[in-house]
Amino acid sequence: VHANKGTPGHITNTYRHQSVHSRCSGAVNWICMLSFPPGVDHTLVQGDVALSKRRNAMKCWSEHCKWGKSYNGLVEVPYTVNDSEKASIKTAMEMFHRRTCVRFVPRRGQSDYLSIESDLGCWSTIGRDGGQQVVSLSVYGCLDRGTVQHELLHALGFHHEHTRSDRDQYVRINWENIPAVNAFDFHKMDTNNLNTPYDYSSVMHYGRTTFASTLGADTITPIPDSFVPIGQREDMSDIDILRINKLYECSKYRNHQTQNNPLPEMY
Q1: Which of 151, 161, 176, 249 is catalytic?
Q2: Which of 18, 148, 205, 264 could disulfide-link 161, Cβ–Cβ 3.0 to 4.6 Å?
Q3: Which residues are known binding-site members for Zn(2+)?
Q4: Annotated binding site
Q5: Judging by DSSP bridges, how do beta strands 122-123 and 132-137 pair with one another?
Q6: Is 151 a catalytic residue?
Q7: pLDDT tens digit string along 79-116?
Q8: Cis peptide before 224 (omega within 30 of 0)
Q9: Is residue 159 left, alpha or beta, with left meaning phi > 0 and alpha meaning psi from -120 to 50?
C-alpha cells in the first residue's frame, strides 16, 4: 500500500491492493502478512514488499542479493517493461543514472532481471532475487516518479525508512492508531543503516497517517519535532542517493553534491 502523491507529510492513505486478503490474528502478530488471491503467486508484507521465494528472511545484507558490478564499474540492472509504461519508468530512473553508479538497462538475455509489470498495486522484493523478478507498478496509481523510485530501491536492497533498527530515536509509532492486521508493517527490522542518518525526507518513509485505523490519525510521529514532514513521493532524497552509493561502492559518486543541497560528509 502506498500513500497518494501530495503534500509531503500530509499524504492520504489509499489501498491499491484492492483484491488483497489478509491472514492475521491477534493484536500484534509478527507473521501478519498480506497475500494475493489464488492464482497470483506473491505474499506481501509492509504493504508493498513481496517475500522472496529463494530467501527465508527479508533483510538483504549478503553479496548474493546485491546486483553485481560490470567490468566498467557500473551496476547494470537488466529490466523489461511494457511500451505503455516505458516513458514514466525511464523518467524515474534518470536520477539513479545521474547520481549513482546504478544503471537500469534493457534486458539482453540476462538470466536475472527486473520484469516491470502493471500488476495489482505497487510492490517489489528486497534486493536481487534471481531469475525473473517482478516489480509491480500498476498503471492505476503507481507510475509517479517517487513511487517508481521507491519500488526500484526495494529491488536494489532497501527497506522502508521507518523500520530502521534505530528508528525509536527519531519517530514514535502510535500503536493505538494502527489496526492489528497492520501491526507488522511498523515493526523494526534488522537493517544495515550504512552509517547514514535517519532520513525523514526519504522516498522510502511512510506518511504519518499510513494504515491509520481512524481517518487522519497519526500512525507515525517524528520526534522531537512532530511537525517534520514525512512520506514524500516526489523524488529520492540526497540521503537515499548516498545510501545507494555506499551500498554499491559507487566511489565516483560518493561526494557528489547538488548546487542547493550538499550531501553530508560521510566518507
Answers
A1: 151
A2: 205
A3: 150, 154, 160
A4: 150, 154, 160
A5: antiparallel
A6: yes
A7: 999 888 899 999 999 999 999 999 999 999 999 999 99
A8: yes
A9: beta
